[in-house]
Amino acid sequence: MIENEIGTIIVETAIAIHRELGPGLMETVYEVVLYDALKRKGLKIERQVSVPITYQDIKFEEGFRADLIVENKVIVELKSVESIIAAHKKQLQTYLRLTGCKLGYILNFGEELMKNGISRSVNKL
User: Fold this and answer.
1) Which of 2, 4, 19, 76 would be a feasible disulfide site paired with 68, CB 3.0-4.6 Å?
2) What is the CA radius of gyration of the chain?
3) What does the alpha-carbon distance between residue 53 and residue 118 come to, in Å, rounded to a whole number?
4) Alpha carbon distance 108, 73 (integer Å)
5) Using one digit for the tens of pLDDT, what is the confidence trace for 61-80?
6) Options 1.10.10, 3.40.1350, 2.160.20, 3.20.20; which CATH number does 3-122 get?
7) Cα–Cα distance for residue pair 88/15, rounded to 1 Å
8) Is the pTM of this model over 0.90?
9) Cα separation, 80 vs 110, whole angstroms
């Protein structure tokens, strides 16, 4: 499956979850529910994945934690905030660059309408 196909499944699933649960819950609630829903759809998915970084030839195991990595191709960062800010988008771009993944999403479940809370980022596409 290519990144865009995976992305379509992620977005459709997030919208369905948001319609049912609504905005305002903690990020971890949306994370476990989205994780379970995507797993039931047959996708390989990992939660809270530690991604190391290397700085001046020193490897740091806790570079960052990706909320979800789907099919080893798409990073998903979950938020439950009033609105996405530039720092969130920069963070995702850094995650994409460090992992070599080509596609990432910020899903903000804090928005009144989920479609307003979806931010898509690409890396070398």
Assistant:
1) 76
2) 14
3) 27
4) 20
5) 877 899 999 999 999 999 99
6) 3.40.1350
7) 20
8) yes
9) 4
- Residues 1-14 as b or e (16 or more Cβ within 10 Å = b): eebeebbebbbebb
Distance CA 113, CA 124 (A): 29
* pLDDT (0 to 100) of residue 41: 97
H or E segment and range at residue 4: helix 3-21
CA distance 17 to 114: 9
Q: Which two tokens stand for residue 32?
A: 């476990």
Q: What is the 3-state secondary structure (H, E, C) of 60-81?
A: EEEEEEEEEEECCCEEEEEECC
DSSP-derived letter for residue 24 is: -
